[in-house]
Structure formats: structure tokens, C-alpha cells
Design brief:
Elements: H1 14-33, E1 38-40, E2 44-45, H2 52-60, H3 62-80, H4 85-106, H5 116-143, H6 149-182
Amino acid sequence: MQSTSLSEGEGNALFPIVLSVVAAAATGVLWAYANPIQLVPGVIQWRIFAFLPPIVGILIGWRSGFICGYLGTIVWSLLAGTFIPAHSLIVDGIMVGLTGLVPGLLFDPAKTSFNKATLVRIALTCLLVGLVMVAAVAASLAYLGIFPFWWAFGYIGLSDIVPMVIGTPLLVLPALKILKSAHPAGFKRF
């Protein structure tokens, strides 16, 4: 497998901030409208784009990954009609934001060689942070009386963890190559 890294340049400092907000909006829209498999119709879909916050976190920076996950969740919940202020703004938003933050902290393209071992570590990181996220979100939904904990844990786990564990390591290298093509001089991560 090819080893790839991204050097940090002095490029435009605004680029990663703008890209994280654009990625957050795209994430929310994709989660709301591009999930063909309904696990619980109208409420829980198989989020085939759940890999976006971890990839944004890894490539653009941990803050960007958090913004992508947090704002993506808010956009999705508003578009899907599932916005619950205490749950969406606090528990769901923050926990999904962490699915972008944690991989972004652990895997910096300027310091990481993306070989097979790294891709396995990325998948394991997505699994662990996904399990924590799903447990917190399921607990919040159970506390609010919306779904039983284990029921929510199972369906949300299928919805989010599977695409993160498979999609993030599978797509991080192609996304890195696209990003390097667009910004050959590099940029500061955010």
C-alpha cells in the first residue's frame, strides 16, 4: 500500500474553516436525503455518509471534524424533522462531533503515514468512538422516553458505526489525494 502524507503549508487559514462548514452542511443534507435504507422508517436510516466527520477531522483538522459532525447533526435533525433541543444540541450534536474530533486528533496527515496498519487503526478508532457516541445518544433517547436504550443502541449502531468503520479507512486515501491536488502547497489544519 502506498504511504501518503500531507505537509502543512502556510496556505489560506480560512480554507479549512470554510470547508468544515460546507462539509457540515453537505453532511446534514446527505444524512437527511441520501440514505436509501430505512432501519426505522422516518427516524433511523443507514447513514452511508457517517464517514464524513472522521474524514474531515483527519484531513482538515480535529476542530473541523467536530464542526462537521456537530453542525451536520443539527442540519440533519432540522431537515429530517427530528430536532429535539436538549438532545440534538447537547448530546447528539456533541457526540457526533466527537466522531470527527477524535480521529482528527489521532491522525494528522502531516505526521502520519497512511499504510495498512494506519488504516486498521483508523477503523478501530471509528469503532471505539462510534460505540461511545451510540451509547450516549441511546441513553439520551431512553432518558427522554423516545426509545428503549438497547433498541436505540442497536439501530443507531448499525446506522452510524458500520459506515464509519468501513467508509473512513476506505475513502481517506482517495480524499487525501484529492485534497493534495487542490492544495499542493498545503494548508493549516483547523
